[in-house]
Specification:
Blueprint: H1 2-7, E1 9-18, E2 24-34, E3 42-43, E4 46-52, E5 55-62, E6 65-66, E7 72-82, H2 86-98, E8 101-115, E9 118-131, E10 137-147, E11 150-159, E12 163-166, E13 170-175, E14 181-186, E15 190-191, E16 194-204, E17 213-220, H3 226-229, E18 234-237, H4 241-247
Parallel strand pairs: 1-12
Antiparallel strand pairs: 1-2, 2-7, 3-6, 3-8, 4-5, 4-8, 8-9, 10-11, 11-16, 12-15, 13-14, 13-17, 14-16, 17-18
Length: 249
Amino acid sequence: MQGITTLSKLEVLHIRITNPTQTQFNMFIQVKVLNTGPVAATMAPMTVDMIGAKGIFGKLELPEVKTKSSGVVVDVPDQVIEILDMDSFLAFVHSIQTDEKVSLILDNGKTTIKALGLTANVNYKKKVDFLGMNGPKTDILKTEDLGDGKFKNTMKMENPSPVEIELGTPSFVFKDPTGAVIAEQSGKVHITRGDYVYDVTGSVKGKGDTSNVVLTGIDTDQDAWTKKTVQFFEMPVTLTQGLLTLATA
C-alpha cells in the first residue's frame, strides 16, 4: 500500500495565506489527488513537515483522504501554522512571489491506509510543484491627479500562481536605475489568483529616469513577517501619461 502514496500526485488548486503575525499565519490548501490506482483507499489524517528550499518551516495537519481512480479534490482546512524557522519560511515566500515554479515537500508523515479490507502503516513524503507569481507582472491601469503632487493609481497584478497572500497595507516606491525615488504609493493589498485589480494613493517625491522604472516594496502596516516579504517585490512598470506628467512637472 506504500505504492498508493509513492505513485500518487498532488495538483495544487489553491493556497491561501492570511493573518500574518511575527511568528505564524493561517493557511488553507486545496489539492487534487491523482494517480492513486484503481482501488479505492482511505488514508488517515496525519501531521507532515512543510519543507522548502532552505528546510522545514512549519507543520501541516492533513485530513482523511478517500481516493478514487479518477482523482479526488481535498480541502486541507484553514489552520494556524507556527513558523519553525523564519529564514526557511522567508525563502519559501520569496520563491512564491518571484519564481516561475515553486517546490514544496510534505515529509515525515505517519499514517495508515485501508484498502481491500486490509490496513497498513505507511510513511508519507510527497514533493509538490506549482506555479509561482513570477514577479508578479504589474501594470498601472490609470492615474488620477489629486492635486499638489498627489495621485490615485489603479493597479493590476497578473498572478499565474494558485497562491493568494494577504499583505495588509504595504507601501511601494517607484525607482529609476540609479535608485532615485520618483514617487511612493500605498494601499490595501491582498493578492488573489488571476488578475488582481486594486487602488492605491501616493505622491511624487523627486525627478528621475522615467523610461526605466521599478516598483519596489518598502514596508507594510502589519507587525508581521510581511514587512520583510513585501521587500521581495521588484516589478518593472510603465508609468501612465498622467503619472509621467506629475513626475516631470
